[in-house]
Amino acid sequence: MLSRANVTKAAVVTILTGVAFGAGEVRKEFRYVVGPKATVSVTNQYGPVSVRPIEGNQVVVTAVLHSDKVVVDQNQTGNRVNMFSRLLPGADSDTGQVEYELQVPPDTNVMLHSDTGPLSAEGLRGEIALEGTTAPVEVRNVDDAHVHIKTMDGPVTLTNVQKGHVEITSVSGNVNLNQVNGMLVEVNSNSGKIHYDGNFGDNGQYRLMSNTGDIEAFAPDTASIDVSARSIHGQVENDFRLEPEQTTPFLMRAESAFAGTLGKAASSVKLHSFSGKIHLKKRSSKNK
Amino acid sequence: MNCAEFQGLLPEILDSGETPESKVHIHSCPECSDLYVELREISQAAVQLRAGEEPNQRVWNLIEIALRQEGLIRDTAWAGPTLLPTPARRWRGAWLAPIAALLLVMTSGIAVLQHVSQRQPLAALNQASTIEAGAAEDQELLNTIGERAPALRATYAVDLRSIDSYIHNAEDTLKSDPTDEEAQRALMGAYEQRAMVYELAFDRP
Predict the structure, then answer these.
(1) Chain A within 8 Å of B156 (Cβ-Cβ)?
(2) Do the beta carbons of residue B15 and residue B94 sit within 8 Å?
(3) Are residue B98 and residue B25 in the same domain, yes or no?
(4) CA distance B134 to chain A (A)
(5) Domain total for chain B?
(6) B18 and B63 share one domain
(7) Is-contact A212 A232, C-beta < 8 A?
(8) ipTM > 0.90 (yes/no)
(9) Which residues of A31-40 are buried (b: 16+ CB within 10 A; e: fewer)?
(10) Ranges in chain B, pLDDT < 70
């Protein structure tokens, strides 16, 4: 294991600059030696940032700059690598674009920031924090990771997230969760729709909340959940035959709320909306 | 010591403890006594908050607006609301930071519950002032975004309008049933979304 000091000393930054890569585009590559559980952050105003795992102890960053109106600032401090797109005078959403591709050890903590995105991460198991304004956000195949997503308009898609700790805040982007399980899965959306398709596993707490967006959740017959659903001004539907609960935190009205348990009620599921429609659906075999 | 002098020294008193003079004033002035007790409770509770987290700039603005309405700070050369951080606006930052974080919660979701309570020294931190402050801040935010990233201004405008509209609706619902915990939670969620929008807009290098 590299000590913090050694990491700094051993940091190898290889920059291949000035490689022509198309009209006005420049491709740069940066390499850093890091220790376990390094942190990599990228702040990019315009353009995509993607991260995927790589074996070894190197972080490899490829940046394609769309013009000379933008530069990439970067540094390594200890076990932390920072990348930052700096816009120069006259830059706009086209000329200010930088495309980042990161390859990092799987236990790396990543913090990605792009207004327009897309942002994507796959195959990691550290902290994953993704923030965007209109950026589409995608996270795939992560295990035992903390996933924090903040977005305004961008759609969010999580696929195959296991043993996760997931927190998503969205204003108007739709949120799609496919096979997402964990101790905590929480979505807070304003007008975006929330779609969940999974098992509600891991004895977790699942809180899918929307203000005005609809919530649709698919679960199998074999799900083990303690579920409550309520839409204050919207409709709710439930395809399951739930065991009734002794107490519920809100007044039960058939058209606006339901609660009950399925199986051994290992996971807690709350589907709450202010005026959106909520539908808990039974996943048929063809949906699998 | 009069009220103005006492309130001017409040940060130091909260930081370092009561002085003989301030003790006399606390015992003789119920209004300042209530204020002192409340701020001390908040300050003590705030210690439980996670250290090292700088509140969003919007928090500072809300605090400033509330304190101005309370008359605890007064105009010097205030030329209107600004969301750009300046050292001067972070007066007494060391002690105010945790209080600010707590007050953000109070001014957002939990503030809805305040009308149930009759404790009034910080009553200016109510929904109306928050909304008024919010409108001015929204405009400031949109101006800033317009300068930094014109293409995104419309997105911010639409989303802020959408959240504000929802907040108004949720508040109306809460008026009809202030004990509805789900509605309270939903409202707090909306304020979180609003705070996130500000964070995305301003927490950039």
Answers:
(1) yes
(2) yes
(3) no
(4) 17
(5) 2
(6) no
(7) no
(8) no
(9) bbbbbeebbb
(10) 45-134, 204-205
Binary contact (B192, A188; C-beta < 8 A): yes
Say yes or no: B16 and B74 in one domain.
no
- Give the whole-angstrom CA distance, residue B15 versus residue B2: 20
Give the three-class secondary structure for B167: helix
Whose CA is closest to A97, among A126, A61, A128, A71? Answer: A71
Report the phi/psi class of residue B188: left, alpha or beta, with left for phi > 0 and alpha for psi in -120 to 50.
alpha
Q: B192 at the A interface (CB within 8 A)?
A: yes
Dihedral sign for Cα B146, B151, B156, B161, please: positive
Domain that holds residue B76: 57-203
Distance, in angstroms, between A5 CA and closest chain B CA? 24
Say which residues have a Cβ less than 8 Å from residue A84's Cβ, sequence separation at least 6.
A42, A43, A44, A72, A73, A74, B205
Same domain, B70 and B33: no
Q: How many residues comprise chain A? A: 288
Q: Which of A119-128, A156-165, A251-260, B30-39 has the lowest mean pLDDT?
A: A251-260
Whether B166 sits inside 8 A of A133 (CB atoms) is: no
Between A234 and B177, where is the model more confident? Answer: A234
A61-80 confidence digits (pLDDT tens): 999 999 999 999 999 999 99
Asked if B187 and B94 sit in the same domain, the reply is yes
| pLDDT at residue A193 greater than cutoff 60 | yes
Residue A212: list chain B partners with CB under 8 A. 162, 166
Query: Is the domain of B61 the same as that of B24?
Result: no
Separation between Cα atoms, residue A71 and residue A26, nearest integer Å: 10
Whether pLDDT at A43 is above 80: yes
- Across the range A8-27, mean pLDDT stands at 54
B76 and B37 both lie in a single domain: no
Query: Quick one: average pLDDT of A278-288?
Result: 75
Q: Is the pTM of this model over 0.90?
A: no
Which residues in chain A have Cβ-Cβ distances shorter than 8 Å to B169? Answer: 274-275
Are B61 and B88 part of one and the same domain? yes
